[in-house]
Structure formats: structure tokens, C-alpha cells
Design goal:
Number of helices: 1
Distance between the termini: 23 Å
Number of strands: 9
Shape: elongated
Order of helices and strands: EEEEEHEEEE
């Protein structure tokens, strides 16, 4: 699970609220323009964004979760021979913002 620690004013200056978010594997596939799979591409999650930003409940998770560089590197995966990959991301309600980099194809962000 992902941890969010909001540093808001609190009655006790030593208190911190931690909100855990469920995660699961999300699958995808990287292909070239003609549909041919791209093996060995690096898929790196950069952040997660709520699909319905206005639906945040009080005390709930932020509408966006940015990942620090060290966590991006930890969560990065390579595509297999068929261009398929699985990354860990929050469950329903969040979209994944990610970078894909492959030799001979450059880099893109989605």
C-alpha cells in the first residue's frame, strides 16, 4: 500500500495521519507504430491521478500521488518478448502517469 502523510496543523504537534491506499498489478503492452511488440522497454510509473478529482472524501487520499525518483526507479519494469508488462498501482479510481523508454524508439510519457 502507498502511504500519504499530510503535514497539516493538528492539535498535537507530534501527530501525523497516515492514509493507506490499496494497490494491485496493472498490465499493459508496448508496441511500435505498426503493432509489433517492443521487448526490453522500461516502463516507469511517475505518479497516479484520481479519475474523478471532485470525489475526494474528507481524510481520504489526495487526488494525485507523485512518486519520488527513488520510488520510480524501484517500481520500473521491463517489457517481455511480447511487449507485455505489469506495474503496481493504486486500485480502481486512479490513472497511471508513466514513462516508456526503449532503445531505438526514444522516450515518451503517458
Amino acid at each position: 500500500a502507498w502511504v500519504r502523510a499530510p503535514w497539516e496543523d493538528a492539535d498535537d504537534d507530534k501527530s501525523v495521519e497516515v492514509v493507506l491506499i490499496d494497490t494491485a498489478a496493472r498490465a499493459g503492452r508496448v508496441t511500435a507504430a505498426g503493432g509489433k511488440p517492443v521487448a526490453g522497454a522500461t516502463v516507469t510509473p511517475l505518479g497516479y491521478y484520481a479519475e474523478e478529482r471532485g470525489r475526494r472524501e474528507p481524510g481520504g487520499p489526495d487526488p494525485s500521488i507523485g512518486l519520488p525518483e527513488w520510488d520510480q526507479e524501484r517500481l520500473a519494469v521491463k517489457t517481455d518478448a511480447d511487449g507485455r508488462f505489469k506495474i503496481t498501482a493504486p486500485t480502481a479510481g486512479y490513472s497511471v502517469f508513466y514513462r516508456v523508454k526503449a532503445d531505438g524508439f526514444g522516450e515518451t510519457r503517458w
